[in-house]
Amino acid sequence: MRTAKRIEELPPYLFVDISRKIAEKRAKGEDVISLAIGDPDIPTPPHVIGRLCQAAQDPKNHRYPESEGLPEFRRAIAQWYENRFGVALDPDREVLPLIGAKEGIGHIALCFIDPGDIALVPDPAYPVYSIGTMFAGGSSHYMPLREENDFLPDLESIPPDIAQKAKILWINYPNNPTAAVASLDFFEQVVAFAKKYDIAVCHDGPYTEVAFDGYRPVSFLEAPGAKDVGVEFHSLSKSYNMTGWRVGMVVGNAKIIDALTRVKSNLDSGIPQAIQYAAIEALTGPQDCIEEHNAIYQRRRDLLLKTLNRIGLRARPPRASLYIWAKVPEGDTSIGFATTLLEEAGIVVTPGIGYGRGGEGYIRLSLTVPDGRFEEAVARLTAWHERKIS
Ligand SMILES: Cc1ncc(COP(=O)(O)O)c(C=O)c1O
Questions:
Q1: What is the value of pTM for the model shown?
Q2: In this structure, how many other beta carbons lie within 10 angstroms of the beta carbon of residue 19?
Q3: pLDDT tens track for 12-32
Q4: Residues 214-272: pLDDT tens digits?
Q5: Ligand 1 contacts CB of residue 172 (under 6 A)
Q6: How many CA atoms are closer than 13 Å to the CA of 188, on its beta-carbon side?
Q7: What is the DSSP code (8-state) at residue 285?
Q8: Ligand 1 centroid distance, CA of 33 (Å)
Q9: How far is the CA of 157 from the centre of ligand 1 (A)?
Q10: How far apart are CA 232 and CA 172, in angstroms?
């Protein structure tokens, strides 16, 4: 049997070593707390589950869904965008439901990338942008996200010959893994750059609803002209604690939406309808759950930040997202330090290098662990540091 080159080209799974060590520790009966994954611990709101159960009882929802989603779901997405961002969308041409944002992010490369084509991809970044590009036969030109530039890419430093060849530009704010946010002014610069070089912009924005201290992240589509050049991926995963139900959307430029609809209609048969009804309920029902969840994450953020500062790990207070991006001690590597925390404190964090070379020197800590366990993790970090300095 000979597998395709793309399977061999997949980067080695960097967490294999750490996963093996976690398994060994757990086999010995040791308790390990994972701050490694951004998967909300808070359940999906009860009114959403109620609607899901009701819809699951209806035989009309037991059949194949349409790839392009229920018209009422597309309308609910358009209305939500109008209410939240003041962005007007045509539900029939500018909205496409997805089986989670990840699915669309992976597949959109098939709409733009021919073998040899280039995508502009941030570094560090959610890995699917570059993997999708590679699966389509293209290559990624990495745009470093540097702390001194507030983790925004420096578009001016992209060589013009690369920009001329590039077909897609990926951006993601609030950002995973750095937790940085972007202003409308930055998105306006992105629109101008995309127009200059005729590049499609894919903005990935699943964390716009997870924000702190009253901050309200903006949508890329709020930038004038954004719809002429790009789309925005969004998701119900983080906004409504629905990671397990797999439902998201892409909205914006009608030509891009049409291309992705054509790809998807040849690959999948849409989102189970009961889940689409649950998603409609989430988008159109009471929204208080968002503030309630954010208050929980904010308390955890403050507690962890205080502890990280006390033990000498520098981290900027995030204004949004589910993460804290902290610098590892001078002279250590991200994998080395993550391994130390696992071995000596029983805590799992994500080494920054897992998101690309630009992530070296950092670890990512997630806020999605139930309060009691989260407090235990913080106490372990403090105790570990005290042992180290004593
Ligand atoms: C930046 C980013 N984009 C997309 C996703 C995937 O979201 P979904 O659950 O909707 O597939 C994630 C999930 O962690 C993410 O961090």
A1: 0.96
A2: 13
A3: 766 677 778 888 888 999 999
A4: 999 999 999 999 999 999 999 999 999 999 999 999 999 999 999 999 999 999 999 99
A5: yes
A6: 4
A7: S
A8: 22
A9: 28
A10: 9
